Amino acid sequence: MQIAKTATQAYNACNPDISIDAGDERYVDLNTSRGFPRPGGIASDIAWRIGQAGKQYCTQLVTGHRGCGKTTELLQLKARLERQRFLVIYEDIDDTLDLAEVTYHDILLAIANAIEKTLRSKNISISKSFSEDLEKWFAEKVIKSNKYLEYSLEGSVGGSIEAQIPTLAKVLASITGRIKGGGESRVEIRQTLDREISVFIQQLNAMIIAARTAVLAAGYVDFVIIVDSLERISLRRSNDKQSDRNNHTELFIENADRLKSPQCHIVYTAPISLLYNTNLGNSYTDGLQLIPMVDVKKATGHSKMIEMVKKRIDTAALFEKPELLDELITFSGGAVRDVMRLIRFASEQLDTKITANEISIAKRALMNEFEYMLRDEDIPTLIQAHQNRDISGNDQAARLLFYRLIHEYRNGERWVDVHPAVLAIRRVTRALAEHIHPN
Hints:
single chain, alpha/beta, five-stranded parallel beta sheet, 55% helix, globular
């Protein structure tokens, strides 16, 4: 990729929604500055279980704030597993499902769909008899009970390209498509799967066994499923105001056994709101790996972030003074996404170099976004986090972590702090001053 030299080029080069794939020259290993083991350690954990008695499968959760570089690290994990001759089935749930409302049924269906698509893309065929049995089960139990699905499938057949797609692929694509579309169809599908959940999981595992047989025959050592973007599921509190229950705990804790039911190695991303849930270790013996923010208060973390920016833009050509980039990096709190967005804010409609004025505009733009999310009842928790570098494990803390008003770090020991953009908001600044120097 060409290094950006103008504001317009810098704006395009710093798109925070584009993850860096393995082998991309823009990749910078930030993990030593995060103070945690690389997610690649998951690859070793999976490899150690190959050939073990009892069919031991790894179900690993990976979490981190949105914008910490999680997807980029998962793509590094994918490449590492592929070098070890694993077939990696990577599924970005954001492409498949509605993140505003996701249930375990949806995820298991998306996994089945991803297995079928990946094997077909690799020209790996599972047993025809199994495929036909699975098609029959879906037709009898799911499609016939749903008038929308029956119509959709009948209407999808025909055309030279369409005719080449296996019926099982059409069935799975139609069902997952209807779930993402919402409405009565989604409700009916979930109700049907609820009634048939034990058999559905048996069918899914039969598919996984058939897939593994075909994958091993193709020369792979096994396959691994990575389910990405689940950490972005919208956070909704329980109607019971006295409870810390929310849709994140309902999905990952209350339905943990169902998410762990696929008999294969699987990596789920998970919301950071679960980090302080006391039931997490009981539900997932393989634990949860956090990808923390980069500690930019330390010289090593700060310099790594500068290196990351210089992989994309010519900083001497774009910034009037090098201290201006330092200011943006510090203001990001170590969030890769926010560094990129701050550079974008500063570059908008700019024909010359970025000056202190553009830096001020960029910082205010980020502050405004956080101010809309800030509630008066959040301020005591923010003060506690900033002064003690710790927070309590309650529903409010989960919300502040999820929306990145508070950042989680790991350098020697775990600690937290308030996002610098939040600390700069007048309400927070005033509350901190009053707490330190009460009248």
